[in-house]
Amino acid sequence: MSDILSEIYQSVLEGESTTVAEKINLAMAEGIAAETILNNGMVAAMSEVGRLFEEGEYFVPEMLVSARAMQEGLSVLKPFLAKADVRSKGKVIIGTVAGDLHDIGKNLVGIMLEGAAFEVVDLGTDVAAEKFVEAVKTYNPHVVAISALLTTTMNNMKSVIQAIEAAGLRKNVKIIIGGAPITAQFAESIGADGYSPDASKAVALVRGLIQ
Amino acid sequence: MAKKYDQLAIDNLDSFVFGKSPFPVRLNNGFTIGGGEVYPEINFTLPGMAINTETFPEVRNQYAQMINDVVKRAVELHALGFSVEFELLPDLTLNPQWGAEITKILREKLDEVEQKENIKTCLRVTPNDIREFARPPLMRHGKYVDEMFRCFELCAEAGADLLAIESTGGKEIHDEAIIHGDLLASVFALGVLGSRDMNDLWQKIVAIADAHKIIPSGDSACGFANTAMVLAEQHFIPRIWAALIRVMSVPRSLVAFEQGAVGPNKDCAYEGVYIKAITGAPIALEGAEAACAHLSQIGNIAKAVPDLWSNESVQNVKLLSASAPTVSMEQLVYATRLMNKASAKGQHAALALRDLFVESDSTLDVQAYVLRPDVVLEISRQIIQESTAYLRTRAAARVALAHLRKASEDQQITLSRVELRWLDTLSKQADQLPESEEEFIDQMKRQIDMSKVNLSEYDL
Which has the minimum average pLDDT: A91-100, A110-119, A169-178, B72-81? Predict the structure, then answer.
């Protein structure tokens, strides 16, 4: 890896948001392609952040600092990526079901997906099934990720899936679910395409479904 | 007029034990909490099901079944008394008449068992803090506030003995603070926003309780400190950060008592050990038997000083032996039977059992260490030297961090290299807390995401 790419990698790894933009500009001035900077400098660093998290060296606060640096870098790279027709790894809509206000888990999944260069549209909490459908029509995502933390709201996940089916959109999207009371069996029973037991495994799940 | 706490109600270790509190709470039926016995406090909830007009008959059936099951088991196991906590789900608070109906079902069964058997009972009703359904939350006005207080009124009329809540004022900032490891934002959420909300909220809850001649019991920093504890258990945040949030949540919870709450404090309020030391009020706590609801590193040490012993909450599902609520009641009865037997044998036996509970957990996790009775007394003593909720929260942070550093150096706890790194990070942040609350508020107004909070709802 070139020196400047290593520096970008290190900036993202250590969460140095203030210097990453300058380093990206230097890399582009050296003629390094935007896609190379993205994949070898930034996504690679976030992948290492993920590994450090799995090893217990990093916690979520460190991941967020790195993710912030990643976002700073992306904001510089985006116009150049668009010019080179480099797309995101995929688009994910995420939200917590109607009647449920819990969002920490959902927010963590969103952050991890963005760190892995997915585009994330966060619908927030207490999201009615119709709003999920509207978002699918508006944003044309690859994946819809639904969260619930209460046993009294988890059945609303089925309502979301049914609403997407009724709108004739089911074939267009993969649907994954997660949250404390959720199980793989429940996911299967309501027709979801996948289930993630926690935020850290959601990225691999989404990656696998899109491929 | 707010009550002032500037000295400890329990200031020595020998007086700090399960079952006994300086200011027991006595119900009209003679049930006394903190008067010498530890009683079970059972909490049960619905299995996975929606709550709406069509399903409400089944909701009624479920609660009727659960109360029948737990009462039957308590009688079979010769329990001298028990408390039932009805923790309302959001839908049962949003529709207060539903919450009142369920309260009535539980009340009638408890009255029946009191008459038939020689058992004392207590019904704690905990409406859900539905104010957060508005985003950003409206803490003092609006339909959610109105329905929540109507729920308190109707449930009081329907037969509650104790009123409680797990209030969430400040949580809209605190959730972000937890995952960002932002100590200053956490102090702002707990020591400024949350405490101001508690001031207003608990004046109103106490007024409702007084009007119905029932007990305003207590609150919980569940949405703050237990959220952190669960995230630590999932390895999302360091344990030392969760332990620190636990201690920093004490001044916020204390505000309920300043405004007239008398205990027992809520079961999930592990900071209740500090509340008991400061106020002398009895407390409920939960630990190993709450694994049905959440996992923790403090399953035994939580048994050191409670006056009610709880299971947190259990779903009505069938296990191999019996329904889960039945199983929970059995577990609680056995746990409290052991504590009461120790008390009956004398102070030395009770303190010996207490110390076993403490020592079995306290060296293994920093979250247990900060619940050690001796540590609680030392930190509490310093917290209440300050006069405002902000300064107390600031003191809680700085004193707890200093204490943990010394404990690590003295090898009373073992902190990993990563946790030690976090001790330094958090200490540097704590050093930035100014003495002036006004200066702190100005600083935080520039830093927090203003779209997430209505500052005017907190008098800011």
Answer: A110-119
Which chain B residues are Cβ-neighbours of A127 within 8 angstroms? Answer: none
CA B302 to centroid of chain Cα atoms:
12
Residue with tokens 């509340």: B275
CA distance A86 to B347: 73
Contact B48 A56 (CB under 8 A): no
Whether pLDDT at A105 is above 90:
no
Residue length of chain B: 460
- List the end-to-end C-alpha distance of chain B, in Å, as a whole number: 22
Task: For B294, name the nearest residue in chain A, comparing CA atoms only.
Answer: A180
**Phi/psi at B58 (nearest 5 deg)?**
-70, -35
A83: buried, middle or exposed (CB in 10 Å: 19+, 13-18, 0-12)?
A: exposed
Task: Give the span between the Cα atoms of B104 and B123, in whole angstroms.
Answer: 10
Report d(CA B173, CA B324) in Å as an integer.
35
ipTM of the complex: 0.90
Burial of B22 (0-12, 13-18, 19+ CB in 10 A): middle
Task: For residue B81, give Cα distances in angstroms to B31, B72, B84.
Answer: 8, 12, 10
Radius of gyration for the alpha carbons in chain B, expressed in angstroms and rounded:
21
DSSP symbol at B218: E
Whole-number Å distance between alpha carbons of B216 and B261: 5
Domain boundaries, chain B: 13-448
Helices (H), B78-140: 90-94, 96-116
Q: Does B181 lie at the interface with A, CB-CB under 8 angstroms?
A: yes
Torsion over CA: B364, B366, B367, B371 (sign): positive
Name the residue facing B418 among A57, A60, A126 (closest C-beta). Answer: A57
Q: How far apart are CA B286 and CA B275, in angstroms?
A: 15
Determine whether B226 is exposed, middle or buried from the number of CB atoms within 10 Å of its CB (0-12, 13-18, 19+).
buried
The pLDDT-based confidence of B348 (bands split at 50, 70, 90) is very high
Percentage of residues in chain B having pLDDT higher than 90: 97
Give the burial class of B68: count Cβ atoms within 10 A of its Cβ; 0-12 exposed, 13-18 middle, 19 or more buried. middle
Tokens of B319: 């296990």
Q: Which residues of B34-67 are buried (b: 16+ CB within 10 A; e: fewer)?
A: beebbbbbbbbbbebebbeeeebeebeebbeebb
DSSP β-ladder status, A194-195 and B32-35 = unpaired
Name the residue among B182, B199, B128, B177 with its Cα closest to residue B457.
B199
Residues A107, B179: C-beta atoms closer than 8 Å: yes
A151–B46 C-beta distance less than 8 A: yes
pLDDT mean across residues, chain A: 91
Of B132-141, B192-201, B324-333, the one with minimum mean pLDDT is: B132-141
Q: Does A122 touch chain B (CB under 8 A)?
A: no
For the cut 90, the answer to whether the pLDDT of residue A115 exceeds it is: no
- Considering all CA atoms of chain A, what is the largest pairwise distance in Å, rounded to the nearest integer? 56
Share of chain B above pLDDT 70, in %: 100
Match domain B13-448 to its CATH number in 3.40.1670.10, 3.30.1340.30, 3.20.20.70, 3.40.50.150.
3.20.20.70
